[in-house]
Give the backbone structure.
Amino acid sequence: MSTNHIVENLKKEIENFSAQIKVEKVGKVLEVFDGIAKISGLSDIKSSEMVTFPNGETGVALNLEEDVVGVIIFGDFSKIKEGDEVKATGKILEIPVADSILGRVVNAIGVPVDGKGALKATKTYPIEKVAPGVVTRLSVSEPVATGIKVIDAIIPVGRGQRELIIGDRQTGKTALAIDAILNQKGQNMICVYVSIGQKDSKLRKIEARLEEGGAMAYTVIVSAGASEAASLAYIAPYTGVSIAEYFMDQGKDVLIIYDDLSKHAVAYREISLLLRRPPGREAYPGDVFYLHSRLLERACRRNEKYGGGSITAFPIIETQAGDISAYIPTNVISITDGQIFLETDLFYKGIRPAVNVGSSVSRVGSSAQIKAMKKVAGTLKLDLAQFRELEAFSQFGSDLDDATKKQLERGKRAVEVLKQLQYAPVKTEHQVVTLYALVKGYMDDVAIEKIKEFEQGLTEYSDHNAKMFYKQITEKKMWDDKGEEELNKVIKEFKNTFK
Amino acid sequence: MSAISNNNIAHAIYLASKDKSHTEHALLPRKVVEFLARRRLLSKAPDILSRLNKIINEEEGKLVAKVFSKEVLNENTKREIINSLSKRYGGKNIILEESLNDKLVGGFKIEIGDEVIDLTIKNRIKKLQEYLTRNYEH
């Protein structure tokens, strides 16, 4: 473009420009500290209304007092001075949304931070919204295939469910969530990963992993890093769910992961204490329950009349030394529709994913499980429960009757089958075949060390030879007598070749 | 019960002075100062005073508008400002407080309470800048 052309263009733009005169509501900064500003004036401001500072930073009014307004500042507050003029925008905090946000990494106010240029947004969504009402909802009935055997079989999650992932540090909480995202390829699911107070290096690793697995095409990452202000960590989950709602409003199914809500609660505690709200238990403010309940209530499945679509939420909570009875964990457990409990002991025993099957539950997911999976998982659950009981006993005595021994062996194999490598999601059909072989006793005489090998061989072999069975699972979600006959034959054939 | 705010005190002083005779009025400042000293509120006196000012203006239907401009405004402009403001604020008695500011480049800016009507050249240039950068960002 030549210089003349630019000048000509500019001239045209300037001619088109007309400054509108409007009355603005302004206030003056009284004090600024730790990401909080106290502002005088702004008499007609609404709660959670956006304000702008002269250096371009935005903030949100949280505390409305008699003649001061407490504002949390998003971004750099070091350049804000006492006496600065603050303008009220008249708008509740909102973020830009567009379909092109897929594959991007945005910060808590929806601004891309991945260096791939600005987001061309046509619409904005408020970050705080009342959750969909009772009449618009539908009960959970369609599964989310996470690709993780232990979850899909024993703690199934349905679309629109809120399933908590809880455990100590380093037990694979994030890994579980990332695996679930990776498995959504081709499942007609949009994913939103909200990173709250995480190390930027960790986020970078996750992004690279998702990119490698081709998962960024249907994923949005909302990032509020550890180095960013608490105010951003506080709004990040709401930003995430607003992006999710944008896609749900198009009738799509969305999976959202909040990693993690303990840090979110800590960020909110920081803000509340700085705003001088009275502290309660563990110094959290009184509305810390509402903080999470209003967020997780926005996960839902809407009925067709109201546009369909769903938001499935996987909130993550980090416990300290396995204490799930602390304040925030108990709060979030009571809000969600079940929890996946990860344990350090299991992790170091080599049982990975380190899911404690006994204390994990899914309160609504079983109605979302496909029939075939329900059939095999029912027996598996029983096997595992009996195994856990017998395992404790068997440590004392060596004299066990055959039936008990058999149950113990079955249990050990069940535990082995449920182990799974990271980034290796398993297709539902393969899960059904493996678990079928397990619960029907085909693996009872396979050595424990060889179980993984057997499993892999079986799925590969059945891929080619049990086509009718697979077809029935994908189409009818259940096998019939013919299919079962075929599968039995295939497993026997494979066993003969396996040594 | 919440703490007594400066606004409450200002209001109390206003009510104490209302409908009083001339002699009582003469005694009032002394009484107020004594009260503030007794309650150790003297440090808050400037704030209380400005609030008292606001309350008196409101009660008497007066509205103070601060006008900032680069040059002294002529009488015609002032009259026009007063007319349009009193229309906007429901026929209140407008009092203009003028002050000069070199940085405004031109035009003027009116502040009434926490409302601002910015008609300075400086603001228009800023708006133009925002408009141009927004259109050329992509």
User: Anything to note?
Assistant: The CA atoms of residues 464 and 490 of chain A lie 10 Å apart. Chain A touches chain B through 20 residues (CB under 8 Å). Chain A has 15 helices and 16 strands.
